[in-house]
Design goal:
By secondary structure, this protein is mainly beta. The chain is about 10% helix and about 25% strand. A hairpin with a 2-residue loop joins strand 5 and strand 6.
Length: about 625
């Protein structure tokens, strides 16, 4: 989810137009360019040495072959053949309750405040007169449901051989809890004490929750793998920046926490990657100070985004010299073992520090991995990481493919080609500015500025298609001032989707505009602000939206046939007023999908009480939506 750029969000701290653009460089804008071109793993426990090197490697597991077994059994008929939610049907309701295709059913699962597992604590069901305690919040499903992934319950056994079908009736769901406003979570505009801050901190982060299909639908169940990871959970650093002094504080406090977990991605070795996006908003200064160039480039400010944590928690006070580098500990991608609740999560510094939206991993023919990542802020960049060695070589040496590799940033050329420019201290341009590779990665945004990367319209999710192509969602850009054939709106309120090709381990690529969302306006396929994305093995592309929609619509889940350039999106699901549809994961048989409904009604019970019945009092709660086809078919068909 992207907090900025959503015109439906009512709190000023969430509005794009009040968040300054941090990229002050004069790099050629993408708008200008477009004028011209239309087992299972055995976990090596983290030690002091491992923290500096690999911090544990998760060996290749069953999920690496999941799509080559269970999911390669496409139904016959039209690829995207379901009856969509029509504009007439969408506008015939009061939009306080979701609408789904007549070919599908949906179920609500694990709303915010649900005990992580039955009996862990009392459920908070949206009572406006009570709020979970910090202790209960750490035992409940959090707020701000976003990226997620489903891990089949038998993946830990090392299955995945050809012909084996993973279970699709139980497993572990890893789910991000990106954020919640003070008024939504606390019922007041600002925290009044450290207890309030802890209540907020424990409601965010990640849930690892065991779920199973039971009579009456899917439920969360008791399982030793379930756990919460939040702003006060210990973690480790790994990779080139792990020992950097820029990640150490004078207070000597151990690394704690993950913040503003937006998108995500699974790895071929059965782990979960969670992405830290707008972490800057939680920091502020209790005393007047002058911000550094590096702090400003990452959007840090004296007042933050209104959360007020720095008034009660010194870790988030930029003016406290003892915690001067605490902000550098956020903006990373964290790796979590969904099957081992004792594992210490690892932030992989080789992947760079910026406002990570999501991550998608592709595996090349030589078994090296490529990771595709977007930096979700206006005029920021597209990144790619390539491992130095194969998955198997890394496993044999006990290191992670995500610790030894190279990070690149994209430059888009006028002729439909592009190049991946390496962010390395070996480049004289970067060597003049930075002391070592660790500093390059900690300030990856500045390094990308210096290399002349192409500023983009808020790169968000990435996903790898059936033939290795990569789809990038560019959600929108309220500060675009020059129209062009590819982005005709000024400002760019609709966004677009870009497709890149050229191989996972190559440093050149080709690109094209896959779809301009504005071209769908006024049609039955109308959608805008593409955000969450997932491509299946058959050629379907699932897109969740985050932002104002045309034609009287709310945010939605649409499905596109990527094999047909003339095919329009089909609307499978539409959410409620002022929500966001985000996250996507699916069972191995591809007959159950999970999406998330974030901030329904912006937390305002006068707008909606979803998932509770309409009563104008119950606080609306973020939740996961389970989607199935009535005839038992593959999702999207």
């Amino acid at each position: 989810m992207s907090q900025p750029e959503n015109p439906k969000q009512t709190e000023a701290m969430l509005h794009d137009d009040v968040i300054p653009t941090t990229n002050k460089t004069n790099n050629r804008t993408f708008a200008d360019v477009l004028k011209v071109n239309l087992s299972r793993r055995s976990v090596l426990q983290g030690t002091a040495a491992a923290t500096a090197a690999s911090a544990g490697f998760f060996a290749p597991g069953a999920l690496a072959n999941m799509w080559s077994s269970s999911a390669q059994k496409a139904d016959s008929g039209e690829l995207v053949g379901f009856q969509p939610v029509t504009l007439e049907a969408a506008n015939a309701v009061d939009q306080t309750w979701p609408v789904i295709s007549p070919d599908y059913d949906f179920q609500v699962l694990i709303p915010w405040g649900t005990p992580l597992e039955p009996g862990a604590c009392e459920e908070w069901a949206g009572d406006p007169d009570t709020r979970p305690s910090p202790e209960d919040a750490a035992l409940q499903i959090g707020v701000g449901h976003d990226g997620m992934w489903f891990y089949p319950g038998d993946a830990k056994k090392g299955y995945g051989i050809e012909g084996y079908e993973f279970v699709s009736t139980h497993g572990v769901l890893c789910i991000n809890h990106e954020y919640g406003s003070n008024t939504h979570v606390l019922g007041k505009s600002a925290p009044e004490n450290l207890d309030d801050v802890r209540r907020m901190q424990h409601a965010m982060g990640v849930s690892v929750v065991a779920i199973a299909k039971r009579k009456g639908g899917w439920k969360n169940v008791k399982d030793k793998k379930s756990r919460r990871i939040h702003a006060n959970t210990p973690f480790m650093f790994s990779g080139p920046a792990a020992k950097s002094d820029l990640l150490k504080n004078g207070a000597g406090n151990v690394p704690l926490g993950t913040l503003n977990n937006c998108g995500s991605g699974p790895t071929p070795w059965d782990t979960y990657l969670t992405c830290e996006e707008n972490f800057n908003g939680y920091f502020g200064a209790s005393m007047p100070m002058v911000l550094s160039e590096e702090q400003e480039r990452y959007g840090l400010s004296e007042n933050g985004s209104g959360y007020g944590w720095y008034n009660f928690d010194k870790r988030f006070d930029l003016s406290d010299d003892d915690y001067a580098n605490e902000c550098n500990r956020f903006g990373w991608i964290m790796e979590i073992d969904p099957f081992d609740a004792t594992q210490t999560p690892v932030k992989r510094t080789a992947l760079g520090r910026f406002k990570h939206e999501a991550i998608a991993i592709g595996v090349a023919a030589d078994r090296r991995v490529a990771a595709y990542m977007g930096d979700d802020e206006r005029f920021n960049y597209c990144y790619k990481y390539i491992s130095d060695r194969s998955i198997e070589n890394c496993e044999a040496r006990g290191v992670s493919p995500l610790d030894e590799g190279k990070l690149y940033v994209a430059k888009f050329n006028d002729d439909g080609t592009g190049e991946w420019m390496e962010l390395t201290i070996e480049n004289p341009v970067l060597a003049e500015r930075f002391a070592d590779q660790g500093e390059v990665l900690i300030y990856a945004r500045i390094a990308a500025d210096l290399l002349g990367a192409t500023p983009m319209d808020r790169p968000e999710w990435t996903t790898v298609g059936k033939d290795g192509e990569v789809y990038w969602t560019m959600t929108n850009n309220s500060q675009r001032t020059e129209p062009n054939a590819a982005n005709p709106e000024t400002p760019n309120t609709h966004g677009h989707i870009i497709k890149t090709t050229g191989g996972h381990v190559n440093t050149s690529f080709r690109w094209e505009i896959f779809m301009l969302a504005s071209s769908t306006s006024g049609t039955e396929g109308s959608f805008a602000s593409p955000d969450a994305a997932w491509a299946d093995a058959y050629g379907r592309l699932f897109i969740g939206t985050d932002g104002g929609q045309d034609d009287g619509l709310q945010d939605q889940l649409t499905v596109l046939d990527t094999s047909n350039k003339n095919a329009m999106p089909k609307r499978l699901f539409m959410g409620v007023v002022s929500d966001e549809i985000t996250g996507f994961t699916i069972t191995p048989d591809q007959r159950t999908a999970f999406i998330n409904m974030q901030h329904p009604g912006n937390g305002d019970p006068a707008a909606t009480n979803f998932p509770a019945p309409r009563d104008y009092m119950t606080i609306p709660r973020d939740c996961t939506i389970v989607i199935t086809k009535k005839d038992g078919g593959i999702i999207g068909s």
